[in-house]
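Standup notes
- DV: blocked on the single-chain target, sequence here:
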Amino acid sequence: MKGKNMESKTIWLIDHKTTLGEYSPMNPDGSSWILAVCMLSAINQDNALIKFNAFLKGEEMELMEVYEIKNIDPMNLKMIPEALSK
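- DV (later): unblocked, structure below
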């Protein structure tokens, strides 16, 4: 049996639209919503969404819509800077 620290985590990308509270730190220009992509690590999609919703609550934001949620292998992240430089 694996311990909690032994669980395999992957990186999750959550493409979403959220509301912005008036005093949200993510709201420097007075907007009422934002389109963004969140990247976080989690053991599965359900855990990723729980972490994401906790983040939103702490930033005075509410989820309006998830357009896509996708997991990626952390080993593939090392290719991102190389791809951006082309």
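- Follow-up: The chain has a mean pLDDT of 82.
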